[in-house]
Amino acid sequence: MSVLKPLRGLDPNTTEAFLSQIEQAHPQFEVLFGARDPNDPAALEVKRLQSAYPASPIVLFAGAGDALNRKVGLLMELSRHARYPLRVVNDSDIKVDSNYLASVTAPLSDPGVGVVTCLYRVKAHNLAAAWEALGIMTDFMPSTMVAQIVGVREFGLGSTLAFRAEDLDQAGGFAAFADYIADDYQLAKRIASLGKRVVLSTCVVETALGAATWGGVWQHQLRWARTIRLSKGSAYLGLPITQAGLWAAVAVLFGFQPLAGLLIALRILSALLAGGLVLKSKLAAGLCWLAPLWDLYSFAIWLASYCGKTVRWRDRELTIGPNGRILRT
Q1: Pairwise CA distance, residues 36 & 308, whole Å
Q2: For a Cys staple, 281 with which of 65, 121, 219, 262, CB 3.0–4.6 Å?
């Protein structure tokens, strides 16, 4: 199988994440790294690993296809060089265990499965990052679990997308969504449109949040929220229904303290189960009692997501149109 990894800058766990992709207990695979600039710090780290591990199945390519979504542009270039019929795409900061490739591609032995994606736990390196990590693991990750349970067919996470090259080609290839911001969602959606299923792997991977600032966390969450709103349309409108912390606050305001207490207890329990038990995160387990407060923060993000169509993605400000398409400005 071919692992495609688009690069842009260093992450707190870059070296260990890259090594984890190389050290796989699988007989035949390749890891293709791609960067627009051959002197990108992440590309230089790949070159260092190539020298340190000359027998490793890793290759670095510079250049990208024409795409408003620069990540997809890199994937378009990498796919031109991939040799194997099974493809795995994951973000540059994803750390995995040695059985990762075998685990995430196993469901593809069923011809009815088109995409396999993974939950992820988050390692934080400062207080602001810990706050965002709590939200991701006790709010966003549980929503992904529920999506499969309630029959949502179109979901995919950048932590892992495993699929057959022929299925993606039939759905139009990476070029079909080169101008969409939610590339992971678009890939899963387009393969699902072929009548294939998207399944959630039992494998949990790890990502790292580095020197986040409080303003950066807000902008990051706002980008996600606007991306989802503009990609999913009216389905995003009902999100606050799931925010138990919000409804606990409403219950307090109207004098229903016992109901508020019950909602808070259930919210903390769900955060503990999702973050501590399923994702095995000590951070989520230790901070689960803050999950109701995260719901209030998430509600503020939800409101702000309706106050514009621009997002900040690294050093770029993008305007997003209908269905999540990036507009040329």
Answers
A1: 30
A2: 121
Give the single-character DSSP code of 30: E
Count of beta carbons in the 10 Å neighbourhood of residue 216: 16
The pair of structure tokens assigned to 225 is 């929220």
Q: Could you give the CA distance from residue 311 to residue 91 in angstroms, rounded to a whole number?
A: 19
pLDDT tens-place string over residues 156-167: 999 999 999 999
Question: How many Cβ atoms from other residues are within 10 Å of residue 312's Cβ?
Answer: 13
Continuous segment of H or E residues that includes residue 199: strand 197-209
Tell me the backbone φ, ψ of residue 47, rounded to 5 degrees: -60, -40
Question: Do residues 136 and 213 lie in contact, with contact meaning Cβ atoms separated by under 8 Å?
Answer: no
What span, in angstroms and rounded, lies between the C-alpha atoms of 86 and 83? Answer: 9
Q: Cα 9 to the chain's mean position, in Å?
A: 17
Q: How confident is the model at residue 83 (pLDDT cuts 50, 70, 90)?
A: very high
Residues 6+ positions from 114 with CB-CB distance below 8 Å: 163, 164, 167, 191, 192, 194, 196, 197, 198
Tokens of 268: 């903390």
3: left (phi over 0), alpha (psi -120 to 50) or beta: beta
pLDDT at residue 291 tops 80: yes
Q: Which of 27-36, 45-54, 200-209, 309-318 shows the lowest mean pLDDT across its residues?
A: 309-318
Location of structure tokens 């790294």: 33
Task: Return the closest-CA partner of residue 101 out of 56, 60, 154, 162.
Answer: 162
Return the pLDDT at 152. 66
Contacts 24+ apart (CB under 8 A), 247-252: 248/292, 249/296
Q: Which of 79-88, 172-181, 208-217 has the lowest mean pLDDT?
A: 208-217
Q: Which two tokens stand for residue 245?
A: 């912390």
Domain boundaries, the chain: 216-327
